[in-house]
Amino acid sequence: MSSNANVDSNTASAQALLANDTLPWHRKITYGFTDMSGNLLYCIISSYMLYFFTNVFGLSVGTAGVLLLIGRIFDAIGAPVMGILVDHTHSKYGKSRPWFLWMSLPFAIFVWLLFTTPALSGTLKVLYAGVMYILADLSYTAMSTPITSVLPNLTSDTDGRMQANSIRLVLGNVGNFFAVTFIIPFAGLLGGGNDQKGWSLAVGIYSIVAFILLIVAFLDMREKNIENEKVITIKESLKATKGNWPWVLIVVANLAYWTAFIVRNSSMPYYFQYNMSSKALISFFNGFTIIQVIGMASVPFFVKFMHKWGTTVFFLLMTMVGQAWVGFAGSNVTSALIGWCVACIGSGSACTMFFAMVGDTVDFGEWKTGVRANGFLTAIGASFCIQMGSGFGSFIASMLLKGFGFNAADKVQSAGSLSGISFTFVWVPIIIYAISLVLMIVYRKWENHEPVVKADLAKRNAEEANKAEAAQA
């Protein structure tokens, strides 16, 4: 009888913990400031880095591609290291939150220096580009890893996490909008004909705004239950991956997603400048990426009816259809714009899902192994995928452009070069997105198991809380 009473008590305690663990709206919004800040700068890198290196900084497309790949390898290695550092962080602010304070200024400074062209030439100029690229990306990893790892500690409520993550991605898209839409005309305005000067000044101003947003997010954020979290060893962090198949699926699918996304973004400026014969279309089309907030905002509603795996598959398929539409549109700007908007809604919404689901795999890892490795698992599932996917994507794009004969010094590209640009921008991303889509169909099995995981973890936490109260009595 007593045993049954304890079970009922633990179950009731678990239900009470889940019911009362809500995240206020103002904190959901300031949580979104983190991604808004990151995207304000990082989306300049992901969308224009290859273009900047070849058409502004003055590197060959082959050299730029190799630098981008090498830099991303360093950063990809840094992602799990950063995750382990988060898991080993113990401060009055929590595990993830203090990193927004510590990394806000380095992140802003290094990105500004990356887009500042020094009075160097030859090997020194290449070395400067490589070092600044690595430092900018490492600082982004150190800032972005906590964005994902902090979410499970902000609230244990699944719906609350999904809402906060959706708001984060919507505000992140606002940052992306200002980054990809206005940076080229803004640099042109400030440079007055000097592109190198203009890019340095424009990115410098963006960096100041990004720094302020991160500080505001840090000041408002609160991590819960940090006093009960133990500092785990590297061995324990690795243990959290054992048998964590949903995490493996998310990592590979997200890696494929980011590879496809960066292939598209890296080749996009070349497509509009050379194939569509209008440099102005780069900013014009990128300005319409803001439309993806429609999909992002609707994600929680789609999840209710299609579940997470089905919602992700749906939006990935939408992305692929939009990409193909752009390809078949040819020189018809209106038709191409419609396809571009469809692709942007799909890709932006699919991205939202990956960030949300990687947080769920932290719960699965704890349920399976008893180890809650927020930092390590989310670092691999998010930052590693972004960095490595960006490296693969930029390298694939640059090597394809080089193979088809692209040369930035030629104002008019050859027929072979134009075909290569079109193939890289339109069709290569579709092929890679398809890999991600298939993996998410497989993920369905693990999502169906989530209610058991949530209930068991809540009961364990309630039992530990009751034991702690009994020990203090």
Automatic annotation (TrEMBL):
CDD domains in the record: MFS_MelB_like
Keywords noted in UniProt: Membrane, Sugar transport, Transmembrane, Transmembrane helix, Transport
TM region(s), chain numbering: 40-60, 66-87, 99-120, 126-148, 169-192, 198-219, 245-263, 283-303, 310-331, 337-356, 376-401, 421-443
PANTHER family: MAJOR FACILITATOR SUPERFAMILY (MFS) PROFILE DOMAIN-CONTAINING PROTEIN, MAJOR FACILITATOR SUPERFAMILY DOMAIN-CONTAINING PROTEIN
Keyword Ion transport: no
Name of the protein this chain belongs to: Sodium:solute symporter
Keyword Secreted: no
